Amino acid sequence: MLGLRIVAAVVVAIVASSCSGGEDETPERAAGAGATTTAPSATANAPVVTGPLCDLLPSGDDPGAPALLRDEPADVALTWIPVVTTFEAAVRASGLARYLRRAAGVTILAPTDDAFAAAFDRQRLDDLLLKRKRELRALLEGHIVKGRRSLAALRDAGSVTTLAGDTLTVAPKGAMARFGNRATTVCADYDVANARIHVIDGVLR
After folding, report:
1. pTM of the model
2. Reading across the β-sheet that carries 106-111, which strands appear in turn?
3. How would you label 164-183 residue by residue, b for 16+ Cβ within 10 Å and e otherwise?
């Protein structure tokens, strides 16, 4: 009987040993004693936006943060940038949202809400949004350029032509880009699925 007990004990020890080193081995054990594993950061490869207004806009894992918009089409991405609500509403009212969703690649110069408030009184803006759709669309097309252009590419270009046919002179202004004497980028380089979006501080037409 003693011999059988010894054999049984040896079998139990062998089974326990094989279980601890089998397929259920944790990454830490597989890597060796003292090794650690690091989970990738959700924002490790996040797009970088730049400009004086960026610090006031969503970042990190907040809704509307650049990292969370990179797979969104342009018309959807605009809905998540809180300072361009007038521009986004105008895009929908003019029927331009469909174009921005399907465009193969565009650059959008989106004026802030404050820029629209400075350019139009409330009555004029309401008329554009509700009644004068053709004029509204032409206004918005003056803020869209074919091709996805980063802030650096805009600064280097010297000039760009909008969908409305306007030629905009572009010049560096500090780290930003200035469009003629009308507007400057204030949070640039939202890199979304089919566009680059640059928030600007003035209306261009």
Report:
1. 0.78
2. 144-146, 106-111, 195-200, 183-192, 176-179, 167-173, 159-161
3. eebebebeeeeebbbbeebb
Helices (H), the chain: 2-20, 27-31, 66-69, 74-79, 85-94, 96-102, 113-119, 122-130, 133-141, 151-157
* Separation of alpha carbons 158 and 178, rounded Å: 10
Tokens 């609500």 found at: 85
pLDDT single digits (tens) 136-149: 999 999 999 999 99
Query: What pLDDT, in 10s, does the model give residues 177-197?
Result: 999 999 999 999 999 999 999
What is the longest distance spanned by two Cα atoms in the chain? 102
Contact status, residue 139 vs residue 133, Cβ threshold 8 Å: no
Both structure tokens of 163: 């969908």
State which amino acid sits at residue 38.
T
**Which candidate, 136, 143, 135, 148, places its Cα nearest to that of 165?**
143
